[in-house]
Design a protein that fits this description.
heterodimer; A: alpha/beta; four-stranded parallel sheet; 17 helices; 20 strands; 12% strand; B: alpha/beta; five-stranded parallel sheet; 54% helix; 10% strand
Chain lengths: 491, 242
Amino acid sequence: MKFDPKGGQLKFLSKEDVEKIHQTSLGILEKIGMKSSSDAIARFFARAGANVDKKTGLIKIPEHLIKEALRKAPSKVTIYGRDSEKAIILENKQIFFGLGGTPTPYILDYKTGEWRRPTKRDMVNATRLGDALSEMDFIMTIAGAFDVPYELEYIHEWEALLSNTVKPIVYPAPGLFSVDKVIQMGKAIKGEELKREPPFGVYVEVPTPLMFHTANENIPRLAENHIPIVVGQMPQLGATAPMTIAGAAAVSNAENLAILTLAELTSSGAPFVLGSLCGPLDMRTTRLSYGAPEFTIGNVVNAGLAEFYDLPTFGFGGCSDSKLPDAQAGAEVMMNSLTSAFSGINLIHDCGYLASGSIGSMEMSVICNEVAGMVKRIIKGFKVDEETLAFDVINEVGPGGHFLSHPHTLKHVSTLYLAELFSKESEVKWAKLGKQDVRAKAREKVAEILSKHIVKDKTLNEKLKEIVKKAEQEIKQKEKQASALEVRPEI
Amino acid sequence: METYKSYQPYRKVFKLTYLKTKKVKLSELIKTIRKALMTFEPEKLIEVVKKSLKEGHNPLEIIDAISVVLGEIGDKFEKGELFLVHLVMAGETAKKTISKHLAPLLKAGETKRKEAGRVVIGTVAGDIHDLGKSIVASMLFSAGFDVIDLGKDVPVEDFVKAVEEYNPDIVGMSALLSTSIPMQREVIKALEEHNLRDRVKVMVGGAPVTAEWAEEIGADGYAEDAVEAVKVAKKLLRGKSG
């Protein structure tokens, strides 16, 4: 089991502030409601006792249902990974960093320096890279499989993920078709232990503001199978939510509570991770700004809400609006990584995201790995006790002496963080080594990892391939029956 | 936390440049409309429009004046002097005012305004993200296009029907999900099947859409963002000979 450092030192919100946001969210759900384009979800809420307008799909959720859901939700969620040694335990503001996020439309090709459409091959390589990077505790992606039939995109991506990392995975599986295949993949890995030791969490997002979509019909399925539901709501200030952070947080939190209610009322104790984020739409460029200070503040707010509810959290760090791994990218990733960690966000995802989440970069991921290492070191802090105050050692060395040859130095030297990538050598040595900047070094590291790091399990890989193959056949059959009406199973 | 001090200079710059822009000879009407529209308060424009009508201006004149000011606002957005929120507010305010208070007064045969062209726009089936599409619609309207917004999650047949019914110059399709962009291809195929493809130019956009994708599915235009979309739309229609 892996225990990571604890954050939570940074707080913006008083208990009263959090309470106000919570009350506003309850008001939003009870008086304004969620609009569902999924009949199955609307019917579920109607059965549970919510006020549902069948014609419009508007679901108004009373406070008592939400309170019931909050009571049922566990405060600790563990995502195990293929290798349970790599498990991450999400509680008490333990922080973990994750490679990438949901699929990116472009990848920055580390060989050519150009961006292009990612393929399944890139998805595989991104996963192998994440598996090898020491500070990446869970894996999402900085690529995507855009060269497979679109109906099968997520299934191919899941296969690439599960075949190429033993670390915990968090990834989307929208809709019943993909979630069922992903659960089958989970069973191929953990068998009957799937419920007890989920190797992955599934990223879930409802369309904002305040909607449910047929893609969200995967939520009850995940709850039944006790697969962690990792929420990443991201209303945009002034666009899909109020311009004010407090108002956007109330919307984002309401969406989280609606998902939580759907999950916990389906299956009591369903593992749920709160992801109530919000970020600004840059009003000049019309892009959501991942490198904005306000986006980072969203993490602090999310952490405040999660503390109030006693739930684990999903947030972000390691992402930038810059198009290259440059100085801007460096500044922005350190800002959001450090802020998230200091807020005590459990899952800090998006490492290696550039261009507001449009471009995934392997070089940037390697740089983020270094940033994550530094952040974890800062969060760890240091101990103050007799041993570390070292009065006797200072006495022994005395004025004018040095500590280099004292056993106390040797004993504690491992507490220093050693940079793997960043340049710490003298300028003379640096010049001799070829005057490389950090991006060039990162590129070399990517090439080195990809040339040798392989995660192998032939039997499992065959099983996963088989699931993808069956999914392909099902899609083909569906196409044949295209004229027939699609019947959605009851949830 | 919510003061956005750093944004304030932009507003100041905008006010100054706007007051100083006297290169073009401006009619009093345009000045009045500009003053009202640039407050970004819907009531102000309605008030001014009503007053102008009383003073004897004809509705078509007023619509043209609004179009001129919308064009100016679009330019200012592109220069970074105004924000998206100003652009959308002005566009929506103008659209509502024209359709409620001016269009009904037009005599039969009078066109609503000198239009750059007509666009049918929508987010494709299976996708309910309509923010990007709405921004593009708003910008096209501000740039003088007649925009018919079909909304989100628009079935393939509805695009076809809209082309038959409205006879647009351009069909615009938006998609945010990588799993929904194939619907853009389906719409193009359906237009071909109904022998409508030659009647319209097709534009596609959305986060996962690329120029290569647009070419692959046989679209005529692709724009990376809303500002670009207006340019592409204008370019497409210039190339469209009578």
